[in-house]
Amino acid sequence: FGLIGDIYITVEGGPGVSQEARVAHTRGAAVVPLRRTGGASDGMFGFPPGALQEPPFATEGQWSLLASKTASVDESAAALVAIVQACANELAAASATIVRAPTPSRPALLGRVSQLSAPMPKPGAEKKAIHACSGAQEGEALTGGQQ
User: Fold this and answer.
1) DSSP H/E element including 9
2) How many beta carbons lie within 10 A of that of residue 21, not counting itself?
3) CA 10 to mean position of chain CA atoms
4) Alpha helices per DSSP H over the chain
5) Are 40 and 51 spatial neighbours (Cβ–Cβ below 8 Å)?
6) Residue 70: pLDDT above 70?
7) Each residue of 87-122: pLDDT tens digit?
8) CA angle in degrees (0–180, nearest 5) for 140-124-88
9) DSSP category for residue 31
10) Which of 10, 34, 67, 74 has an alpha carbon 20 to 30 Å from 47's alpha carbon atom?
């Protein structure tokens, strides 16, 4: 599952949750751990340390509510929703800049591909969309190191 999503929410968990979070985080997906639940979501079992750091799409107050065991469940849940919504908004804004080729017309499907003049996506547009929620800077490898 760590290979298919853009945003992951973890709740508690063991080694399997940590493994999926590592895979997702390594490829640049946003991983939002509900730390107050403990286990993998609070850094155990090799959970990716980078996913435990406050991402750019969360406020300090929202991020701290995910870890607070004294905050109400409603407060933590509201913070989680706000964080995921902010990340989704950033992903949507980043993907809106990607130019997609139009669906091939009937002549193209019949083999007359030369009649099409479909624009190509802007170079690097997909990478910018992935980086929007990962917190990585442009030019930084998705694994967190420098390219």
Assistant:
1) strand 7-11
2) 26
3) 13
4) 15-26, 60-67, 73-95, 106-109, 125-134
5) no
6) yes
7) 888 888 777 665 555 555 444 444 433 333 444 444
8) 80
9) E
10) 74
- Rounded CA separation 52/95 (Å): 25
Tokens of 82: 């706000």
| Contact indicator for 18, 49 with CB cutoff of 8 Å | no
Number of H helices, E strands in the chain: 5, 2
Provide the pLDDT for residue 114.
39
Is-contact 73 98, C-beta < 8 A?
A: no
Rounded to whole angstroms, the Cα distance separating 32 from 84 reads 8
pTM: 0.64
- Closest CA relative to residue 33, chosen from 53, 59, 16: 53
